[in-house]
Design a protein that fits this description.
With about 260 residues, the chain is α/β, with parallel strands linked by helices. The strands form two sheets. The chain has a four-stranded parallel β-sheet with strand order 2-1-3-4, sandwiched between helices. A four-stranded parallel β-sheet has the order 6-5-7-8, sandwiched between helices. Helix 2 runs parallel beside helix 3, helix 4 packs across helix 8 and helix 6 packs across helix 7. The radius of gyration is 17 Å and the shape is globular. The N and C termini lie close together (about 10 Å).
Length: about 260
């Protein structure tokens, strides 16, 4: 089984961190590959960058020449998953819904610790659309930007723990890490809190393995039917850009395994 994990931003070091977490969670025999878009924002902190990223991710998926059995989209609360479900004939899972679904198996109410406060409404909207908001006790921002997460891991963990304590006080019995850039920090946070902490990347990988193992895939009956054939000007976009203008042209992508 091969699972593709897509970092929605163009920061190569974050792709590497996400890949490491996904690989650690994967079962023996599951091949994890990871990549990021060829263009787009270096981090996603708001709707504008989210929609740019969604287009860049779809562009990347449309031009990949490697087979995979499932896709994990490693953006928390960001748009684009539905488009990928229409584009691909393999299961597509995102870390937001995967984290929340797993958390609800572990406690009555869950909460989310994310990056900036401006991300909170976007995550809440995603949970509401997915029917998962009712059992969410709180979503809180740490005040850390996405790129700040990698600058000082000890400080990042400290701030996540401080914020998570507020979420637990609000009624959460399980904590979800609300950013792909927090991948791999769950054990340190859980040790300090004494409650389960769910990493969305790891959760999505395990759900992807289960879905593929059961021989299931996204329904193409109505909502996620393949796109209707029509002309789309300049699509895919990356095929029309000079290589020197493509951010992340030397992607941290390894499909050799």
């Amino acid at each position: 089984m091969r699972i593709l994990v897509m970092n929605p931003n163009t920061t190569v070091s974050m792709t590497a961190s996400i890949r490491a977490t996904a690989t650690a969670a994967a079962s023996p025999g599951t091949d994890i590959v990871a990549t990021e878009p060829l263009w787009g924002p270096e981090s996603i902190e708001g709707h504008f960058e989210g929609y740019l990223s969604a287009a860049a991710v779809l562009d990347r998926l449309a031009t990949l020449d490697t087979p995979f059995d499932a896709l994990v989209m490693a953006g928390f609360g960001e748009p684009g998953r539905e488009g990928a479900q229409e584009l691909l004939d393999v299961p597509v899972l995102d870390i937001t819904e995967s984290a929340a679904q797993m958390a609800m198996m572990l406690g009555h109410a869950y909460g989310i610790v994310t990056t900036l406060d401006r991300a909170v409404p976007q995550i809440q909207d995603r949970l509401l659309t997915a029917g998962l908001l009712q059992r969410c006790a709180a979503v809180r921002g740490t005040g850390l930007g996405v790129l700040e997460l990698e600058q000082d891991e000890a400080r990042t963990v400290e701030v996540i723990i401080e914020t998570a304590r507020e979420v637990v006080a609000a009624g959460a019995e399980v904590i979800c890490l609300g950013c792909g850039g927090m991948a791999g920090l769950q054990e340190k946070v859980a040790a300090a809190l004494g409650v389960p902490v769910v990493d969305g990347v790891a959760a999505a990988v395990k759900f992807a393995e289960a879905v593929v193992g059961l021989g299931l895939a996204t329904s193409a009956h109505r909502s996620f039917a393949p796109p209707r054939p029509k002309a789309i000007g300049s699509w895919p976009l990356s095929a029309h850009l000079p290589s020197e203008r493509v951010v992340g042209a030397n992607c941290h992508t390894d499909f050799s395994r």
